[in-house]
Specification:
Blueprint lengths: L15 H6 L2 H6 L17 H5 L9 H23 L3 H18 L2 H17 L3 H17 L3 H17 L3 H18 L2 H17 L3 H17 L3 H18 L2 H17 L3 H17 L3 H18 L2 H17 L3 H17 L3 H15 L2
Helix pairs in contact: 4-5, 4-6, 5-6, 6-7, 7-8, 8-9, 8-10, 9-10, 10-11, 10-12, 11-12, 12-13, 12-14, 13-14, 14-15, 15-16, 16-17, 17-18
Length: 363
């Protein structure tokens, strides 16, 4: 039996979560050893300009340790708030941490804080502020001559360029990252750079090239034992297959991503994989499986305490019930999503959801 057309336009997931999410477990398990930086830019502030702002006052050791403890707590709090879907609160915590790290002149901690701050601004769609954080992160990375970190940095720069619709510039930035990875013989750098090059190719409409790049990237990500990165690339591949692949390829790819992400306890990639499977199964009328997946999605979002992902889950339920013509149930789920949007103070989302309800009731 001929399958329905799956070639719907695809909205690709930015890879910033790939760069930052991959480090989350390392952050909590070895906070003092984190010298990695992901958020860099090829057009960056001068390193000397940033580091000259730092000063190293002769502070009593006990005072210094107390300040560091407070900053470390704020940094952990900010990242947890990001995970829980509260980027507004994360910004406040991280800015306070920045002040303290500046006062004690801790370059590595400053870099990590700018990294998380950039992520929070991306979640808030405040890309200008995200770029500012990224440029400062770059200045620190250049000053410390951490070339390995520059690979991940440039990948995040490319991600922001993708957000701005500058696809060719993004592709060039990923190429720069790939060149550094080649010079360092970094398999990890190869993996993420090739994956993001695939993402840029997809944005440029060359999905067949994207598929080839993703498959190549998977070889390196498996080689380095990077299940989170592998799951992210598989999700990207699944999105490309939604345009040029078969139903079987889509299901198999997202299924692998889901299993890997579950094993690695990577909740964000689990959610992405579930979203891909939901779209694929619902497109061919496999609604029982679709509802099972949505139930799993909501459970993950609830366990995370991530209000924004709960909102997305309720909205997905609402759209599915709307598709099935069960408008009363759909409206109930839309209302639950609206309540969360109000709690998040996301007026734009609230307006869109209310408009969706109005349009639905006109049917």
């Amino acid at each position: 039996m001929k399958q329905p057309n799956l070639l719907a336009p695809v909205k690709f997931q930015p890879s910033l979560s790939d760069n930052i999410g991959r480090r989350r477990n390392k952050f909590y398990n070895a906070f003092w050893l984190l010298f990695f930086s992901f958020l860099l830019s090829p057009i960056a502030a001068n390193a000397t300009d940033i580091t000259e702002q730092l000063h190293y006052p002769a502070i009593d050791r006990k005072v210094l340790l107390r300040s560091r403890d407070e900053a470390d707590s704020l940094l952990r709090l900010g990242e947890r708030q990001n995970i829980e879907g509260n980027p507004h609160k994360a910004v406040k915590s991280l800015r306070r941490a920045l002040e303290i790290y500046h006062s004690i002149g801790d370059l590595n901690a400053l870099g990590l804080t700018y990294e998380f701050l950039g992520k929070a601004f991306v979640e808030l769609n405040q890309y200008k502020k995200a770029e500012d954080a990224i440029r400062k992160r770059l200045a620190i990375a250049r000053d410390t001559k951490d070339f390995q970190s520059q690979i991940f940095a440039m990948n995040n720069v490319g991600t922001l360029l993708l957000q701005k619709g500058k696809f060719r510039a993004a592709s060039q930035t990923f190429e720069q990252a790939l060149k550094i990875a080649r010079n360092l013989n970094s398999s990890e750098g190869y993996g993420i750079s090739l994956s993001n090059l695939g993402l840029a190719s997809a944005r440029l409409g060359d999905y067949n090239k994207a598929v080839k790049l993703y498959k190549n990237a998977l070889n390196y990500r498996r080689k380095t034992g990077d299940p989170i990165g592998e799951a992210n690339t598989l999700n990207n591949l699944g999105e490309a297959y939604r345009v040029v692949g078969s139903y079987e390829e889509i299901i198999a790819t997202y299924g692998k991503a889901l299993r890997l992400a579950k094993t690695a306890r990577d909740n964000l990639n689990q959610l992405r994989a579930i979203d891909g499977l939901v779209a694929a199964h619902s497109s061919v009328g496999r609604y029982n499986r679709t509802f099972e997946l949505l139930e799993k999605r909501l459970a993950i979002a609830t366990d995370l305490g991530n209000s924004r992902e709960e909102l997305k889950s309720f909205e997905s339920y609402a759209r599915l019930y709307e598709k099935l013509g069960k408008y009363s149930t759909a409206r109930n789920f839309y209302q639950r999503a609206i309540i969360i949007a109000q709690r998040l103070e996301d007026s734009t989302k609230e307006v869109l959801l209310r408009d969706r309800v109005i349009q639905m009731l006109k049917k």
